[in-house]
Amino acid sequence: xxxxxxxxxxxxxxxxxxxxxxxxxxxxxxxxxxxxxxxxxxxxxxxxxxxxxxxxxxxxxxxxxxxxxxxxxxxxxxxxxxxxxxxxxxxxxxxxxxxxxxxxxxxxxxxxxxxxxxxxxxxxxxxxxxxxxxxxxxxxxxxxxxxxxxxxxxxxxxxxxxxxxxxxxxxxxxxxxxxxxxxxxxxxxxxxxxxxxxxxxxxxxxxxxxxx
Length: 212
Fold this sequence. Notes:
The protein is of the alpha+beta class. The chain has nine helices and six strands. The strands form two sheets. The protein has a three-stranded antiparallel sheet with strand order 1-2-3, with no helix packed on it. A three-stranded mixed sheet has the order 5-4-6.
């Protein structure tokens, strides 16, 4: 999980506790204070809503080259509140759209399914999971497409905190240019200036090996 704050309240689900409690309760500890039980907080309820797929009213069919096309169900109101692009897509200028079926369906193009899923899940939970750098880039592009700026910033922070080495400087620099990440581009530029000989040697070695 990326982006959790150490300053937030520490939670322990009942499934992880030896104490007898209901499934919906949570044991909590606020900086070592009294331990008690309370219902799941807002983010936990939204995560449950997202994971269970209960009461969904929109279905997305992601046209990303996978057969059959993967589908993802969600709740219009939650997506519209977090993204102006989703608000325009799902509601347009009308506050209600009673002429559509109970579950509306939309086809999403030019976005990978995992990246689109990351955007939707982030709007529910404020959390995002990255398996590799390619998925981060795809997620950032999808977040820009649907105008979810906090997720764009999260992706940029992921790359800006990464370590730059002589063998990765050139590719990271190009990625920063392609994705308009100015701070990362400046970091790479400074690193290349300070390690020009090593970077050029590795780039030349790569080009020479590739030409064989």
